[in-house]
Amino acid sequence: MSSLSFGLATFGGGSEFFKAWGSTGVKEAKRLLGLCLDAGINVFDTADIYSDGLSEEVFGQAMRGKRNDLLISTKANFRFGKGPNDIGSSRYHLIEACEGSLKRLGTDRIDIYHMHGFDALTPVEEALYTLDTLVRSGKVRYIACSNFSGWHLMKSLSVSERHGWARYVSHQVYYSLVGRDYEAELMPLALDQKVGAMVWSPLGWGRLTGKIRRGQPLPKQSRLHLTAEMGPPVAQDYLYQVVDAIDEVAKETGKTVPQIALNWLLRKPTVSTIVIGARNEEQLKQNIAAEGWRLTPEQVAKLDEASAPPIPYPYWHQRQFVDRNPLPPPVAQ
Questions:
Q1: Cα 169 off chain centre by
Q2: H helices within 64-166, ranges in order?
Q3: In angstroms, how far apart are the furthest CA atoms of the chain?
Q4: Which CATH class is domain 4-318?
């Protein structure tokens, strides 16, 4: 699995929400796919709800003839249809969702199948038994979750262990220099249970593209215009403080703001792969260039300090007793 993955939310542009991300068609998708494979990126991440299935369809057409060269990650759980059973992690919906994704992608298997969110109305046992059945059938290779809280993930792992079913091997999470909540509970859990992190929105929902600075208006086309609906909140003063620190490191390294933000994540414990996106070839090339070099320990420390969030209870209390509750180990530079 490559340390960078390519996110396909920009493919299709089938709704106003996803048009703010991008509207990549099949022709451009083929070029982007080729650039990724040439750079060693072999993981491609989509979801059934991205542009109402159009993202999967576009990618399915673009990857024809290359299926064995790549790994497909897709997701289910959120509403896909108007019926009462077109949502959630029930046996009915997951089987329907998986078959639909396979058809749109034009393939016979999904390499990494994520639960896009936690369904508190369906028994965990029902969801995991269904996922285990899909694994045993060969339609799914590995299962993963996304946007789970700590107890959601730990309960699921416990149920899988108790019954000998497939377990979540990956957790797709929001993690960035302006969104470090993952570190408080989910990162220690992932270290303990050996669950790799697939990081989504590593540029803080478009805030760390280099276009957001003090006194500058938002770009005309940006997902930030939709933040009130779905995006993670970030205080403005905090954002500018972090961007100022990134700018300092960018001057020292000659790298761009997004490249600094992505490289910082590559140094962090549990991070298996970072899902990058791109509207066009130039953006993709710029993001790929976040790999192959290292920030110095001093630069990492500067970014850590500028982006340090308030620590919620009980973690601030536990960190007073590191001899019994150690933090995640430092990452070798």
A1: 14
A2: 91-105, 124-137, 150-163
A3: 56
A4: alpha beta
Omega into 314 within 30° of 0, i.e. cis? yes
pLDDT in tens, the chain (333 residues): 999 999 999 998 766 566 566 678 999 999 999 999 999 999 999 999 999 999 999 999 999 999 999 999 999 999 999 999 999 999 999 999 999 999 999 999 999 999 999 999 999 999 999 999 999 999 999 999 999 999 999 999 999 999 999 999 999 999 999 999 999 999 999 999 999 999 999 999 989 999 888 877 766 666 565 554 567 889 999 999 999 999 999 999 999 999 999 999 999 999 999 999 988 899 999 999 999 999 999 999 999 999 999 999 998 888 888 888 776 655 443
- Active-site annotation, residues: 50
Task: Output the CA–CA distances (angstroms, integers) from residue 13 to 19, 141, 237, 315, in the order listed.
Answer: 4, 28, 32, 41
Amino acid identity at 235: A
Sequence spans of domains, the chain? 4-318
Q: Which residue has the tokens 């949502």?
A: 87
Closest CA to 21 of 49, 42, 61, 60: 49
Per-residue DSSP letters for 21-38? Answer: T--B-HHHHHHHHHHHHH
